[in-house]
Structures are given as structure tokens and as C-alpha cells.
dihydropyrimidinase
Amino acid sequence: LMSQLLLLASSLSRSNQFCDAGTSSKLLIKGGTVVNAHHQQVADVYVEDGIIVSIKSTIMVGDEVTVIDATGKFVMPGGTDPHTHLEFEFMGTETVDGFFGGQAAALAGGTTMHIDFVIPRKGSLTAGIEAYEKKARKSCMDYGFHIAITKWDETMSREMELMVKEKGTNSFKFFMAYKGALMINDEFLLEGFKKCKSLGALAMVHAENGDAVDEGQKKNYRTWNNCFICFYEPHQLEGEATARAIHLADFVNTPLYVVHVMSIDAMEEIAKARKSGQRVIGEPVASGLALDESWLWHPDFETAAKQVMSPPIRKRGHDKALQASLSTGVLVPFTTLQLVGTDRCAFNSTQKALGIDDFQKIPNGVNGIEERMHLVWDIMVESVQISVTDYVRLTSTNGSDADIIILNPNSSFEITAKSHHSKLDTNGKVEVTIAGGRVVWENNELKVAHGTGRYIKMPPFSYLSDGIDKKGCLLSKLPPSPSGESQIQHLKSF
Ligand code: URP
Ligand code: ZN
Ligand code: ZN
Ligand code: ZN
């Protein structure tokens, strides 16, 4: 526990320069249960100038130190939301709030770091990331970038290298859907995967069969004019694309990250690949764990349109299966899905109404950046599907960020209808959020400041790339030999 938190502490030191006056830079969090992804123990945590200086059973301090009593509460790393779209121009409009507003909401919900998707501008990744650097200038919370690849040519390939080597990004998202807009075909997907492999970057996919979805939606629109629920994106087409992406990543021999896993079909493809030793990561999103399709059938357009996203929120049953796949089974010592995002891409009711006469034009996206930590606590920990240490593992990525939250397991509160179809009572409440050593959320009040968030660079060749070249790309063509086989098994046992 100590070494983990001290590791976190060392990364906190970078934030010194952002600690401003107004809030004490010396904090003692007293008597809480300190939790990381592996352990929990009752301890005091002392923070000075943004650094966790010490964690001990009892720490004595002077009057100049602000003391926060955490007795009976959990002291945990702040959450990381690996999938957001703030200030995203999409489907003829732009998401409701910018980086500052979205981040403030996140901090109020115990998330202290997020990774947003840079969308290329006029086909250029450089222009795209420059635009996002500008959007993020006022950040009040740490952030990183994934880069979306929406076409393929030599320039794109060169620019990917620039993004990794000069911009500190290490992940690229490929859209297998949104035909005519962001979608790319299998040939380009393969090119992109190969480039990711050579750069040690992580390939991510939006996995749906974009051709079939497009045809299905057009046909439904023609046939039914505008029945709202004709939003046609069946779970089989999510499963198909997930399987295809997995097989192509295996062919290239590069790790794969499947974003917004919404269905049993996709989840099972990921499970199968992981069991065979392939390096595949699956990310469900809070709305997919908490909601079901029935809201799309709501007679009120506004209520229904609020839940429209791609891939869609599925029928009851998918939600429970996705939940279960986040917990470690007794027989299977690893989980199928590894972390929870939000895919926060929020549009207001006026923007959603762009699709009132044609469901195909409803801007796709849901909320959740503020609610994720609470929803995962309520759905997963309260129901005893996962432990508190598992909770930390699923909601905050190790090492990227060292901020702290204090969660009271005995306080229940109401998540209001902002992101949700209806009010929802949840148990467990983030009462305090500390970002960069500053208390930014306490007593239901935000104290955030422009420019206090840092851009977090993410290096290539992570643990996912480790040793992967030892597995030749066409190994399956080699004649089997007993010793060769066991070696392959060894290399695949990840
Ligand atoms: O509907 C969604 N998911 N909107 C955000 C864009 C994306 O595909 O992630
Ligand atoms: Zn997507
Ligand atoms: Zn609900
Ligand atoms: Zn997304």
C-alpha cells in the first residue's frame, strides 16, 4: 500500500506549480480507510504542496494544517474516465459543455482525470490536436488525449508518428461505424493497426458494422417514416465488428482496446480472445451498466432521445452481463472487461431535437461524467459484485494520476435526472475531491480554477506491448511441435 501510494505521490510532485493560495496546501486526511487497487487499511494521509508525504496509522500536525476527518469513509485515488468527448463537433452540432464545465462536473463526481478524443481537422491530426490543446487551455482537471483516425493516407501515417513522438499520445481510435462520416474500411483499419504496432501505440475501435447499420437505418426510415425506435443498430452487428477487429488485431499481432462495449455479443468475443491469450481490453460505459433499452421506447421524444448513443443501450440482460464481466470470477482468475468509462458526449434537448423528424439525425451521445463513480459504486460495490479495491482498479487507471477522493459509504443521495431517465437513489457519496493537492469539492461546493489541470503525456510501448514481437505474426502457420507449442502458450499467457 505504502509503495503504491508513494509512487502516486511522486507523480503528484509535478503539480506543485498549480497549487494556488486560497486553499491550504497542507492537508491531513484523518482516520479513513485508505484503498488502492490491491489493499485497504485504516490510516492517516498527509499531503503537502500536492504531494502525499506520508501514510501512517497516526500522524500529528500543527495548526496550519487543514484536517479532514475521514472516519468511517474510504480514501481512494480520484477516478479516471478513459472515454469522454468534451467540446466535440458532431452530427451538425457541438456537445453542450467545454472542457472546463465538463471537468467541473467530473470533479464533483470524484473523477480527477479524463482522456478525451481528438478529432482530426480537415483531415489533419496536427490541426486537430492544436484545436484540442486550445479547447483544453482552461482545464481545471488533468486530462490526456486519444486520437481518432478517420481516413488513411501517407500523411496520416506520418502524423500518427508525430502524435506519439511529439505530442505524448499513445492511443488511436478507429471508427468501424458512422458511414460517410468517421468510418474507415478494413483495409485502412489494417494499415492503422500496423502503424499502431510499430509505434507501440494502442489501437482502439468503435466496433459496429457501419455498412449494415447504415443500410438498416435508411430502410427503417423509408419503411416507417419516423418511428423513433427504428434506430437500427442490433447487438449482432456490434458482435460482428468486435470479432472482426479482434481477428485483424491478432493478424497484425497488436493489442486492441474495444471502446463502449454495450452488448453480450461484443463482451463474449472479447472473453473468447482473452481466454486464448490475445491482448484485448474491453471498456463498458456507465450508461450501459445502469440503463436498458426500454427508455428508447418512451413515447416522449425528449426522454427517449436523451438515451440515443452508438452502439445503443441494449435490452435488459446485457446490462447485467456487462456488470458480471467486470468482476473476477472464482473459476476464471481474470475479468472479461477491465475498466469503466462514460463516453460522455452530452447534447441538450434542443440539440437532440435536430432529429425530431428523422431519428437518424439525433446527435449520438449520453452523459455520465459526473455520475460514473457513484453509479459504479452503487451498481457494483453495493451489490457485492466487486470489492472496494476492485472498484479502485475499475474506475481509476493506475499511475496516471494521484488525486484523492473521500467516499462515504453510508451516505445515500439522489442522482437527479440530468443524465438519467429518472431520479435514482444511490448509496455511497463522494464527499470530498482533492485534485493536485487542492480541495476542489467539499460540502457540495466546487472550488475550481481555470488552468489548474495538467496535460498528462502517455508514453508508447506500455505493458500491453511487452514481449509481443516474440509472437510472430503468422505463427499459426507453423507446423506444431510439442516444445514450440508450449512456448507459444507461454507467450500468450498474459
Ligand atoms: O454515441 C456515441 N457513442 N457518441 C460519441 C461518439 C462515439 O462513437 O464514441
Ligand atoms: Zn464510438
Ligand atoms: Zn436508472
Ligand atoms: Zn465515444
